[in-house]
């Protein structure tokens, strides 16, 4: 409508100019007429639109609309501390064990930033994951499931067979823990701890946790590809062929164990991310 009215006005002005045969004395009058017409188009002709414009509440900085974010997506700044057991004011606490049994020594509560670990400290944490009494107990459960499903028929059944499954499971666990949590982080200068996100939707937190298999932090705090996890678990899978029968010493078997190890760690990161929340809401523990 505005464009149509503008064209009509200009057309009328053109006819007026032609009628006056470009009289210099009439140019000023015509220019004023055109300006008046344009001004009348720009001004609101009804009371209601004028009132709406007058009552509109505009921000001091209109561009702020472009940068508005959901408050849930804005993460609080990390709290720098040397205490690995510290808890941020608005975060949930990671415990050293889940349900008092499962080792959880490498998990860090949300919103914390810890100093880098020394090579010695990385090996100590890997050792605690491997030789903790609960790790020995969990290996026993895993060995029982493996024997029940006859994963390696050559091991046999009964007490002797269970012993075979048990020590192989312990060897696999130790190899995995030391390559992924010790050797890898030292060689690639990466942090072997899991930093809880602790904020956001279920999907956001779950995605963050599961992608920690591929993404980790360097000792300086910057994110990087998780060479410690991917290459470490592959090295562990390859090394494990030394204590299994020859028919399992193939690239296919190594690849299957490698992939299985990473998928298990993916699930481990997921439940570690949600453990503090479950601990607070289900067990009412902060």
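-> sequence recovered:
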């Amino acid at each position: 409508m505005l464009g149509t009215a503008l064209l009509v006005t200009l057309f009328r002005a053109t006819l007026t100019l032609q009628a006056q045969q470009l009289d210099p004395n009439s140019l000023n009058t015509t220019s004023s007429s055109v300006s008046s017409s344009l001004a009348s188009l720009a001004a609101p002709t009804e009371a209601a639109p004028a009132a709406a414009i007058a009552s509109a509440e505009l921000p001091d900085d209109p561009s702020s609309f472009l940068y508005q974010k959901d408050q849930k997506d804005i993460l609080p700044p990390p709290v720098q501390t040397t205490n690995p057991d510290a808890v941020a004011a608005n975060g949930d606490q990671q415990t050293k064990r889940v349900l008092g049994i499962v080792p959880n020594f490498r998990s860090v509560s949300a919103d914390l930033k810890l100093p880098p670990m020394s090579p010695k400290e990385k090996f100590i944490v890997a050792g605690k994951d491997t030789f903790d009494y609960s790790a020995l107990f969990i290996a026993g459960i895993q060995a029982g499931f493996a024997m029940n499903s006859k994963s390696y028929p050559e091991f046999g059944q009964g007490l002797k067979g269970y012993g075979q499954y048990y020590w192989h499971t312990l060897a696999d666990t130790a190899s995995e823990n030391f390559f992924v949590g010790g050797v890898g982080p030292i060689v690639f200068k990466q942090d072997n701890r899991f930093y809880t996100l602790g904020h956001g939707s279920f999907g956001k937190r779950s995605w963050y946790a599961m992608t920690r298999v591929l993404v980790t932090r360097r000792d300086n705090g910057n994110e990087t590809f998780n060479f410690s996890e991917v290459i470490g678990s592959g090295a562990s899978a390859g090394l494990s062929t030394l204590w299994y029968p020859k028919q399992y010493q193939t690239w296919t078997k190594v690849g299957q164990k490698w992939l299985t190890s990473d998928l298990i760690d993916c699930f481990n990161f997921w439940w570690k991310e949600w453990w503090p929340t479950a601990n607070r809401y289900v067990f009412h523990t902060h």
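The beta strands are 79-80, 97-98, 102-103, 107-108, 112-113, 194-195, 215-217, 223-225.
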